[in-house]
Structures are given as C-alpha cells and as structure tokens.
Inverse folding.
C-alpha cells in the first residue's frame, strides 16, 4: 500500500511565540541547543505558549530508518514537546503526524489528540537528576530509530497498553490475553481494592479456585467481548463516553447496547446478582501488524462505566423498579438518550501471574521442572521452597510433622496468620496463592521416622525426582539415604550449629554414591581442611552434651537464614541440573562475605565384615597405603577414626591416624604407642561436634606377607574387642598389605544384645 | 549486511562498498582536501580509508573503479594506491588493487597528463598484461589500441564488459550483489555506430540480503542526454527493473545539466526520460544522495544547483524518501562519511547523535598550558 503523499498533522492550540521568549527553563534549554545547531538530525520548527503557561516546542526529527521499517516511522517526523511551567510533570513528546502508528511505548490518548511517546522508563523524579535538553533529544531520536526497526521492545515482549489518564489497574486472568476462539460474551466477577489516595483503585478478577473461599459479593462485574481482528496502527485512542465506546465497537461490528442490556438483565434477574455492582466492559481485540497479516496477539482493553448496574439498566431502558422490585422490561427496549453521555473510564489491564511468567520474570524460563519432595518445612526449608517456587521452579511435595508456633515466625517463610497450622499444609497453601494457574505444590503431614512407612509417603517418594532433607536431623538424612523407598535422587541441606555455614550434599543422578557416604567424607573434610576450622563448634566451643551437630542455636538471626536460603535455592537448582554428586560448603565471615568450598569426593568402598557393613572410601585406603609404603621395610600402624550407625549396623571409617612417635616398628611386628594420641582423638571429636571418634586399629604387613590375621593379630583383635565392648562397639581392625590390599576384621560382641540407637 | 559509504569530499566522488562476505569495492577516489587549510571541512580520504582498512585488517581493495578520468574522481589516486606499472608508485604503505575497473575511454583517450596519465598507464599496463583489469566498452572499440600492443580482441574479450551486461566478477549467489552496466555504450543511429558518453561508467548494483533487494544506481557525472539514452535503451530492451532504485548517487554533484537543458528559476525541469527515471523508477522511501558541497541558498554557476536540489528534494518527499548531501551530513559544519547499511530491512542511513563525552574520550585533547 503506498504511503500517503501528503502527511496530515495535528495542530496544537496556543499562541506562537519567538524562541527568545520561552520562559520555562527546560524549554529554553531545548530551544537554545537546537538553535546552536550542534545536534544533527533535529531542527527547531516553532514554539507555542498555551493558557496556563505550558510551552510547546515543535521539532523535526530525522531518525535512523531502514527502507522497509517494521513500524511506519518516516525519515522525517514532527514531534511536539510539552513543558510543564512548574516542572512537576516530565516534558512530554507527542507525534504530530496524524497517522503516526500505535507502537509499543506509546500512551493511548483521547480521540483527536496526538499520540504520546513514552521515552523513559524511569519516573520523572529520577530523570530530573540527569535531565539535559541534549539527552532528551538524543533519547527522542533513539526512540524513533529503534521503534522503526521494532527493536525498542524486546522481541518476545508483548505490546503493552499504558494509559496515563487512568490511575487504576485491573488484574485479569491470562486466558483473556491469549488468542483463543471467541466464545460469546463472558462474565467475570471482580473485587475492588481501594487505595489510600482516591481516585486510584485496583480491580482483581476472582481466580476460579478462589471463588469458593470468597463468601462476599463481588463489587464489580465485567462483560468480556471479543472483537474482530484489527490492525495495530489504528488502535491509538480510547473512548471517554458510552457513546464513543459504542461507536468504537460499532466499527468492529459489536452492538454494545445489546451486550450491556443482556448482561445486566442476566446478572440481576437470572443470577439474582447485586444491583449495586459496577459494570465493566472488557474488550479482547486480536491485533495484527498489517491488514493482510494474521493476528499476533490480543490487546485487552477495559472500561469502567460510571454508575451501578441498576442505574445503567434503567438508563439503557431494559430495567424498571416496581414497588422496590427490579424487573426486566419485556419486548422492545428504548434506551434513554442520556446513556450517550455516561462517562467511561479506561483501566490499565494487568495480567495475573502464572508460573510460566514467574519463570520469565526470574530470568529462568525453560529450566527443567523436577518434582521435588522436601522433608522439613522449618526455617531454612520453608524459605528455600518459597524462593524457588516464586521463580516458578519445580513441582513440590512438602513433608513435615510440625505445627507453626509463634517463635517459628522469627525465621519462617510463613506469616503470622498461619500460626497453629501444620507447617507443610500451610506452606503449600501459601505458595499455591502465588500463581493464577493453581498449585504445583502439595503437602503431607508425616513423621518420616515413624514405622512402618505410611503408604501416602511411599507414594509421594515414588513420584519424586529429587528428595531433599531440610530437617537438620542426622537421623532423617540417614533414613533418606538408607531406608526411604523410591529411586529419587537425595540431597541434604543444612546449616552448621552457629548458622554461619551452609552445607549441601547431593547424590549424583546415577546414585552411585549415597548420601550417607557423602556425609562420611564431609566429616573428614571438617577434620582435615584448615579452611573449615570451627565449622562444627558453637561460638568457638565444643558442643554441650545432648546436642547434635545440626542443631542450630536458638539465637540465629533471620538475616543468616535468608542469606543462606538464597544460596541454597540456587545451589539446589545447580545440583539438580548437574548429574554429578557434590559436597559444598558456604562459610559466612563476620563481615558477611561468603566463601565457597567444594570438597572433592572419592569413590566409596563397602565391605561386609561379620554382621557389620564397613563403609570407607578410596581416600581412607589411599592414606593407609601411603603410610605403609613410607614405613617399609618395617610395619607401621595407628588408629582408625569414624562413627557407627547401630540402627543400620554400619561402621563408617572416615580417616586414619599415623603411628604415634613412641610406637615400635619392626620388619615383622608393630606396637602402637600412645604419645599425643588422646589429644589427637579429642581434637578430631571436637572438630566434628563429637561425631567422629576412635573406631579401632590399623597396621601394615610387610612385602610378601598376606592380609590374613597372624596369630599375634588374633590376640590383638581380642584385646581390641574386649575394650570396645565397654562402649558397646565391635573391635575393628584393618590390615594393609602388598599391592594396596586392605582386609577388615571384627570380632562379634560378647553380648549379642544390640545397644539402642542414640 | 553490506555497507555503502559516501565520503564528504566537496564536489567529488568516492563510494565504498563493503560486502557482507568480506569483499570491498571502491568507486572513484578523489582526495580533494587541502592539507594546508586546517578549516577545510572535507575529509582526508587517504587517512580515513587507511583507518578503515586497518580496522578491517586489510591491505587492498578487491575492486577500484574509476568511472571516468576527471580530477573530481581520481585526484590523489597515484599517491594512495600501489600501481603495478612503475616502482615509484609502490611501497608497503600503499593500498593494492586486485581488479581495476575503467571505461574504454580511459584506455583509448590520448593526451592525458598528470594523475589522469598515471591511471591510464596503469590501466593500459594491466590490459596489456591481461590481468587485474576490467574495461567497460564494446569490445571492437578497443581493437585499435590492442593492435598497437600486438594483441587481439579475442585474447582480451574476457576482460571486457559491454553495456547491458552483468559484471561477471560478482554474483548474487556468491557475493550477495550483482552489478549491471548501463554505460558506456554505443547507440545505433542511422545505420552507423556512434560512441557517445564515452567517458563515464554507470552501474546499477542490486544487493540481496536474505531475499530483500536493495537497488543502488551510481550515476557518475553523466548529463541529461546520456541519461535519456540510458533510459531509452533500457525501455527498448524492456529492462525497466535495471533502472529501479532505493539509493541513487545523483550525477555530477547536483548539476542541473544532469536533469535537463534549462536550469529554471526555482526548480529545474527534467527531461521526460530523466523524470521517468526519478519519479517512476524510484521506490518508496528511496534516497537521493548528492556527492557535493552543501546546497546554496542562491543561484550559482557551479554545481550544486539549488534548482536541481529542489527537484530532487520534491521527488524524495513524494516517496517519503530523503535527499542527502555528503557535505551536509550529519551537519554542514562537521560533515562525516555517510554510511548506509544494507540488510534484510533494506537500506538504513546511519544517524547517530554523538555525545560530547564520547567524542572527548576518542580524541586527544588540545595542549594545556
């Protein structure tokens, strides 16, 4: 279609003045810089002053426009810039060409008015700090150039509506913005939230699942009308009276009066609705870029019609009140001609939030969407779940047995309204309310350590891709590692006792290394790595009796939990995205700097020995082989460090100590000394919150000798077993010999009765 | 994306075409700036091209075309280019020419001196050696000169392109562009072959960018009679598309003589054929580019003529296009190269409003006391 040869322009009212007579400082600044001709591509045309002191500077802009622009921006555009005498409002730019297209970042205006350009994102209060006439001109030129190529907007962003005249928002379901086939007029119920300063208010369409909870009557109802597809450029204006709205809709072959009359009668008579509700009209207009194109998006416009349903019905001649009873007028209805002047206010339509949009707004669309079961909805767990759910990440099952108590509020994601409710259910409820498109979270009140495992818990575990332990209880992590049904990948997330450090242990995708095996290597890291000194102490001191290493002190601040839940949320996403197992620790210093420490994991090694399962790893075995090698041709030895799990009949060996200095090493025998040994074992216990302690003895055999027990070794084992029996523990002995082979030996406990779990 | 650059050289020409796939062509080279005049707003073409070449990590042009051997199209060329015919025009700082394009007159004309003579010797040398040259002519026209070199037309036919043909060095498929030759050509009149407009090389370039065609006509310095002939031949051969344009390098620095015989008082009236070329063949949002001094407010003898400019301006407005002048872009006080990018959206003239701070940090400061 050829472009019109003669452009028509809007004329602005006011008195033309000489550029020298401009009074408003910003307008004067603009005129001066344009007159000095230092800026290319922008010329001054004329200056006008309006009643009230507003000054208008008309300029000619030559933007950067390709031969085939996406939007019909011309090589030469006339723009009027309006300056507020008080400088309270930002200088506003209007496109004077009457067929200037409706493009993104323009404001809708009333009929016959030039289109206003939205040049800046920041509010004027911010812009004013940096405002110069040159910068304004540059932004105007940039705006026109980028609009020409359709690159001012991000490609996947929708053309948004913005109505500077309307102080009010209307929050609408997403389906209204999607191109679906028209289905005839629909009815929406809405609630109003007045704001402190009238006339602003927000209207919220009721979510379908929320309706049942809402007992009160809606304050507003909306009639949703589908229009025929329109070309984008034409939709520049908004109507201000019912007559203008009717005319606007007539151009789209919609009979507004008929829709209103039927809608009101239906609401009042058939549905016995509240006659005082306010009526809104919502228009869905499929918009295409050109007359030939298919519609690309749906533009939603909303109008508030002044007056109640009852009043409007009377004005439209479809209702009457007889003896206080509302009745519909049957047959031909005659609208009162006053209807034409009924005021219509445009509203700013806003989409309700969906999970997909939450992902987009978080900058993480298209991530994998795993089903995550979490055990524990306490301080850390609730905040991590909420952080991730807000971003639309994951489908969740929350398992917890506790009830939210007042003191929990200090560090819990849930607000006070939920005190007394079950944490799991309350959190699921809270998270579900984030999105329009319903819950992706469910809950189960269960104590995972109760026997037998509840069927419901088993079902949920079977369905999960990942199970995360937020319980801060070693027993739960151990249960998750060894007992929990299903084949979900297991992850444990907890804080150290001081709440300064965050620990994340994650099994790999293949689950070749179990959570309890990673836990053993975590303790070794706490023992051996200088960086982790103090990790398991409380305020620098060893834990008091009766506390477990994951008991967080009761004086931890929400700041710490918040900081770590942010890290934990991202860490969880990263670990789930990676197939590898992982052990990572984040330490916070006194000045809140966070230091990341990743621990290299080595391959676990498990050996059945008597009725115990010994769990060690390549790291421990490598150390035994090294110490043997260094002592050759003599034998050497030392003590084994670790901890038992009597419930699961496991002995975890995490480290070995070298031979004390007062030991005797000969080519065919070894006597372990004890110089400094007690102190070394105590130190290790303190570094691991008392978890890791003495587990038994190891010694080496010389070249050519097997890993079998010698007669001396048998006696040694008996000595060891007799002593360990006092602690209810089996004696554990390891022999390391030629070619790196290691043999493990226990003797059965004299008393077959097993001690209780701690 | 291809780029076409017009340099502000006063009433003189230099158009650079950088193709998306890396080849670079130059149409004319006239370094007109007066180095002794610090206030001369014309660009130092040698310095500018060397900077651009070095940014692109190049030491040569794939093609240098001299549309005809007038000063405003060749001035200073022997100081800038590496010429093969004599050692004194060679050296590591000189820019090499892979293929030299000249009209036949550049070979056959006699009595040329100065820069013209040097360029002619280079062209003759290359033609005689049989490589690195393309001559635009009816082959027979060169027969006489070739005979003096003891060469035949047949042995050089592959280096000669006649009007009405596409220059074989570039194809749409391989380079995203094709060049159609409009001039120089021979007109058949009354059974005799008369060679006219022998000087200038006029081409139409059609750029193809992902299916979007952008058409550029480079019209050298031809006058209205030459244009009449070009239009007549093109219409007769039903080749209208070859005279369509989105970008038009206006001939002869906006001289009225390229439009019609009479200057006119306010606006030059073009001949019927010339008017057809601009009004009918110009496409929507077409750009007319005058390689000239800024358009004067008064009547002048020398181009640019305000009357011609008024015609071009009106033509541009009718198409929602624009009329641009190299010495007035972006502003008269400080002209800069006029850069046109050619993409799937067609042609875009670069129009950037610079910032003071950006300019300051990209230039050395003056001496402080």
């Amino acid at each position: 279609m050829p472009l019109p040869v003669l452009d028509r322009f809007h004329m602005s009212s006011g008195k033309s003045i000489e550029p020298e007579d401009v009074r408003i400082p910003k307008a004067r600044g603009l005129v001066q810089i344009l007159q000095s001709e230092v800026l290319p591509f922008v010329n001054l045309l004329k200056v006008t002053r309006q009643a009230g002191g507003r000054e208008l500077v008309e300029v000619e802009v030559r933007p950067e426009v390709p031969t085939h622009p996406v939007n019909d921006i011309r090589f030469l555009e006339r723009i009027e810039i309006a300056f507020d005498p008080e400088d309270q409002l930002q200088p506003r730019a209007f496109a004077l060409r009457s067929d200037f297209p409706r493009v993104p970042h323009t404001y809708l205006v009333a009929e016959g008015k030039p289109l206003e350009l939205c040049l800046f994102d920041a509010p004027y209060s911010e812009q004013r700090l940096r405002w110069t006439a040159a910068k304004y001109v540059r932004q105007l030129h940039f705006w026109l150039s980028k609009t020409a190529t359709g690159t001012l907007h991000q490609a996947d962003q929708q053309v948004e509506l913005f109505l500077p005249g309307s102080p009010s928002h209307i929050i609408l379901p997403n389906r209204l913005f999607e191109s679906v086939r028209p289905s005839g007029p629909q009815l929406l119920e809405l609630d109003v939230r007045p704001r402190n300063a009238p006339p602003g208010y927000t209207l919220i369409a009721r979510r379908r699942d929320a309706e049942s909870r809402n007992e009160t009557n809606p304050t507003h109802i909306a009639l949703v009308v589908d229009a025929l597809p329109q070309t984008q450029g034409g939709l520049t204006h908004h109507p201000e009276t019912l007559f203008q709205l009717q005319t606007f809709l007539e151009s789209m072959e919609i009979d507004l009066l008929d829709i209103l009359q039927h809608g009101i009668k239906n609401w009042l008579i058939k549905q016995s609705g509240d006659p005082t509700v306010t009526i809104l009209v919502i228009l869905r207009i499929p918009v295409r870029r050109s007359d030939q194109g298919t519609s690309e998006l749906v533009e939603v416009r909303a109008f508030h019609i002044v007056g109640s349903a009852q009043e409007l019905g009377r004005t439209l001649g479809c209702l009457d009140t007889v003896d206080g009873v509302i009745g519909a007028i049957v047959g031909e209805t005659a609208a009162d001609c006053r209807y034409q002047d009924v005021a219509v206010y445009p509203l700013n339509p806003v989409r309700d939030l969906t999970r997909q949009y939450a992902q987009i707004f978080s900058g993480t669309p298209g991530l994998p969407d795993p089903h995550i079961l979490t055990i524990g909805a306490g301080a850390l767990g609730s905040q991590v779940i909420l952080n991730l759910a807000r971003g639309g990440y994951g489908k969740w099952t929350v398992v917890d047995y506790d009830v939210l108590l007042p003191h929990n509020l200090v560090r819990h994601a849930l607000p006070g309204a939920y005190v007394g409710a079950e944490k799991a259910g309350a959190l699921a409820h809270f998270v579900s309310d984030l999105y329009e498109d319903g819950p992706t979270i469910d809950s189960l009140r269960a104590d995972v350590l109760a026997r037998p495992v509840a069927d419901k818990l088993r079902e949920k575990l079977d369905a999960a891709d990942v199970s995360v332990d937020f319980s801060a209880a070693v027993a739960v992590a151990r249960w998750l590692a060894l007992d929990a049904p299903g084949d979900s990948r297991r992850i444990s997330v907890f804080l150290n006792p001081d709440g300064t450090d965050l620990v994340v242990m994650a099994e790999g995708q293949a689950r070749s290394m179990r959570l309890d095996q990673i836990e053993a290597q975590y303790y070794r890291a706490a023992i051996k790595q200088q960086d982790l000194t103090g990790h398991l102490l409380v305020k620098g001191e060893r834990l008091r009796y009766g506390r477990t290493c994951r008991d967080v002190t009761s004086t931890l601040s929400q700041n710490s939990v918040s900081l770590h839940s942010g890290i934990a949320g991202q860490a969880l996403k990263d670990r789930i995205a990676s197939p590898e197992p992982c052990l990572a620790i984040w330490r916070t210093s006194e000045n809140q700097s966070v230091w990341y420490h990743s621990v290299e994991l080595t391959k676990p090694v498990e050996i059945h020995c008597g009725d115990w399962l010994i769990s060690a790893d390549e790291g421990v075995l490598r150390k035994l082989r090294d110490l043997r090698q260094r002592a050759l041709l003599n034998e050497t030895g030392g003590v084994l460090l670790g901890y038992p799990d009597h419930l699961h009949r496991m002995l975890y060996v995490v480290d070995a100590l070298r031979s004390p200095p007062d030991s005797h090493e000969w080519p065919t025998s070894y006597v372990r000394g004890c110089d400094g040994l007690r102190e070394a074992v105590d130190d290790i216990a303190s570094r691991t919150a008392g978890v890791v302690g003495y587990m038994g003895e190891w010694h080496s055999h010389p070249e050519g000798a097997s890993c079998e027990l010698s007669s001396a070794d048998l006696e040694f084992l008996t000595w060891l077993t007799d002593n360990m029996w006092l602690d209810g523990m089996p004696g554990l002995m390891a022999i390391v010999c030629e070619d790196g082979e290691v043999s493990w030996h226990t003797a059965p406990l004299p008393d077959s009765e097993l001690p209780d779990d701690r | 994306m291809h780029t076409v650059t017009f340099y502000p050289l006063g009433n003189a020409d230099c158009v650079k075409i950088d193709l998306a796939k890396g080849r670079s062509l130059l149409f004319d080279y006239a370094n007109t700036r007066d180095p002794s005049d610090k206030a001369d707003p014309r660009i130092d073409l040698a310095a500018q091209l060397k900077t651009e070449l070095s940014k692109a990590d190049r030491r040569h042009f794939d093609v240098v075309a001299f549309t005809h051997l007038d000063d405003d199209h060749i001035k200073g060329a022997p100081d800038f280019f590496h010429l093969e015919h004599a050692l004194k025009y060679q050296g590591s700082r000189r820019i090499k020419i892979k293929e030299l394009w000249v009209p036949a007159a550049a070979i056959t004309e006699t009595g040329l001196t100065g820069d013209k003579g040097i360029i002619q010797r280079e062209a003759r040398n290359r033609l005689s050696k049989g490589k690195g040259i393309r001559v635009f002519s009816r082959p027979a026209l060169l027969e006489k000169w070739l005979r003096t070199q003891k060469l035949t037309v047949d042995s050089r036919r592959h280096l000669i392109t006649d009007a009405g043909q596409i220059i074989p060095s570039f194809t749409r498929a391989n380079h995203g562009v094709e060049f159609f030759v409009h001039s120089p050509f021979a007109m058949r009149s009354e059974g005799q072959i008369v060679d006219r407009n022998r000087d200038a090389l006029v081409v139409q370039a059609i750029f193809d960018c992902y299916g979007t065609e952008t058409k550029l006509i480079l019209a050298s310095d031809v006058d209205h009679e030459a244009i009449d002939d070009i239009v007549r031949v093109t219409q007769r051969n039903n080749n209208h598309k070859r005279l369509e344009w989105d970008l038009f390098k206006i001939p002869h620095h906006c001289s009225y003589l390229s439009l019609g015989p009479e200057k006119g008082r306010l606006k030059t009236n073009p001949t019927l054929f010339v008017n057809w070329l601009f009004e009918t063949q110009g496409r929507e949002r077409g750009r007319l580019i005058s390689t000239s001094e800024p358009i004067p407010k008064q009547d002048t003898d020398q181009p640019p003529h305000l009357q011609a400019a008024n015609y071009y301006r009106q033509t541009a407005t009718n198409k929602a296009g624009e009329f641009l002048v190299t010495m007035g872009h972006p502003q008269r006080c400080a002209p800069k190269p006029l850069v046109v990018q050619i993409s799937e959206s067609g042609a875009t003239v670069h129009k950037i409003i610079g910032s003071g701070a950006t300019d300051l940090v990209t230039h050395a400061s003056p001496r402080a006391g």
User: Anything to note?
Assistant: Chain A has 16 helices and 36 strands. Chain A has four domains: 15-148, 169-352, 358-598, 604-747.
